[in-house]
Amino acid sequence: MVRAVCQPLIVVSIMSFVMATPCGAQRPLPAQEDVATLDGIIAAYYDVVSGPAGAPCDVERDRSLHDPNARAIIAGVDSEGRPHIRNLTLSEYHDGCREPRSRGFYEREIHRVTHRFGSVAHVWSTYEWAERPGGPVGGRGINSIHMYHDGTRWWIVDWIFDNERDDNPIPAEFLP
Fold first, then answer.
1. How, if at all, do strands 83-89 and 154-163 pair?
2. For each successive 10 residues of the chain (176 residues), what is the average pLDDT?
């Protein structure tokens, strides 16, 4: 009699613990329209970083686009004009995205060059950004994005970008 009463309580206790335990390795499920096509994943890639002042980036949606071992690489120049990069894990990149934006930031693709072979794709995605949709352009640059298709969906493996500067104009082949 005791055993029959205790078994359901044990099962309920275990289920409660399992459901309340965070699963750090678990990946958020992506929206199918975000990962089914190259167009979809690129649109989502820009959408997750864009938004009004006071709103953070959509980190969970961004995680759903990326391979668990994805890298984010930020290129630029130091104060003396020497090139450098910051090579980050996706989690390290997201650490800087969780706080609400101090100003609006809307990044959009203005041109794309895609090279694909089998399940691998490389996208050169030229972008511009503004502080509000349709507002004056604050800057431009190019994202170099590597992706793979696992037979079901696209995954972003890594990306690197550099901003346009006076000494680093965007080449004509990457402009509309």
1. unpaired
2. 47 39 58 97 97 94 97 95 95 90 96 98 98 97 98 98 96 97
